[in-house]
């Protein structure tokens, strides 16, 4: 009797995975593998992400991203991503309509502006403040909020808020280990109140931590309308590679500014 019931149960669980947009978009493994977590357990994972980030000076990765600009969800983009503390950033789009675009931002340099060129005609270099760029694109972030360290800090703030407001009944789920762009990772999720004025960053946040580096390597967020608003995956993070001034200089001959 039990042997006949188990295959049927697996079928319905599989069907649930297919019709649940959040889970089917996120999990590399079966959705029934998730286990409840406490906020304290999530806090411990996030603190280990922050600790891993505090121990390094720079990193290079390939960033896969989707973002909602206004009401438009962008196609997935593939970007070379260089980061050096305290905040120097280089990004180069590797495919898609924006292939060839490059951005450099060094906090405190260039009168606080970014260097930007689109990589297509008319290919001119612009200097633009992060705030202006955010406003023009209707995006959710400025370059001051880029990188795995900022994201880990943002999650930590949301955990602290949830602990201070137990009536919000924030739920947390451990998805165990899965491969994230080939990287063994531990993934978990926080589900916050679906209210715009809740004070949380979003309604749902799914995050992964690289087993190799200890750094956050994925964050996916749904808003209070339960729409996907951003998905950032940091592939093959290489830490402390010795990035220098040349890596964040528009006069670098390897760049096209």
Give the gist of this structure.
With 257 residues, the chain is of the alpha+beta class. The protein is built from five helices and 13 strands.
Mean pLDDT over the full residue set:
85
Uncertain stretches of 5 or more adjacent residues: 1-30
Q: End-to-end distance, in Å?
A: 70 Å
Largest sheet: 13 strands, antiparallel
Q: Helix count, per DSSP?
A: 5
CATH H-level superfamily: Lipoprotein localisation LolA/LolB/LppX
What number of domains? Answer: 1
Our estimate of the beta-strand percent is 25-35%
Coarse shape: globular
Rg value: 20 Å
Assigned CATH class: Mainly Beta
CATH architecture: Clam
Structural class: alpha+beta
**How many extended strands?**
13
Per the CATH scheme, the topology name is outer membrane lipoprotein receptor (LolB), chain A
Oligomer: single chain
SSE order in H/E notation?
HHEHEEEEEEEHHEEEEE
Structural features, described:
It is built from 5 helices and 13 strands. The protein is an alpha+beta fold and 257 residues long. It has a single domain (34-248), classed as Lipoprotein localisation LolA/LolB/LppX (outer membrane lipoprotein receptor (LolB), chain A, Clam).
List the helices and strands and how they pair.
Layout: H1 2-19, H2 21-26, E1 35-37, H3 39-54, E2 58-69, E3 72-73, E4 77-84, E5 88-93, E6 102-106, E7 114-117, E8 126-128, H4 130-137, H5 148-164, E9 171-180, E10 183-191, E11 204-210, E12 216-222, E13 228-239
Helix pairs in contact: 3-5
């Amino acid at each position: 009797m039990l042997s006949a019931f188990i295959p049927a149960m697996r079928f319905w669980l599989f069907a649930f995975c297919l019709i649940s947009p959040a889970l089917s978009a996120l999990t590399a493994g079966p959705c029934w593998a998730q286990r409840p977590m406490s906020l304290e357990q999530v806090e411990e994972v996030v603190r280990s992400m922050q600790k891993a980030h505090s121990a390094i000076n720079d990193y290079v990765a390939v960033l896969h991203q989707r973002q909602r600009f206004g009401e438009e969800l962008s196609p997935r983009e593939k970007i070379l991503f260089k980061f050096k503390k305290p905040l120097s950033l280089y990004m180069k789009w590797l495919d898609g309509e924006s292939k060839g675009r490059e951005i450099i931002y060094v906090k405190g340099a260039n009168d606080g502006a970014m260097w930007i060129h689109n990589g297509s005609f008319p290919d001119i270099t612009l200097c633009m403040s992060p705030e202006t760029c955010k406003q023009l694109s209707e995006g959710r972030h400025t370059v001051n909020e880029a990188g795995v360290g900022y994201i880990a800090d943002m999650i930590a703030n949301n955990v602290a808020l949830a602990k201070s407001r137990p009536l919000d009944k924030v739920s947390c789920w451990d998805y165990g280990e899965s491969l994230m762009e080939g990287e063994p990772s531990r993934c978990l999720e926080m589900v916050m109140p679906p209210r715009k004025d809740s004070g949380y960053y979003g309604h749902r946040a799914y995050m992964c931590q690289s087993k190799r580096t200890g750094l956050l390597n994925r964050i996916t967020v749904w808003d209070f309308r339960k729409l996907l608003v951003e998905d950032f995956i940091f592939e093959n993070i290489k830490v402390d590679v010795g990035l220098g001034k040349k890596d964040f200089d528009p006069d670098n001959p390897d760049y096209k500014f």
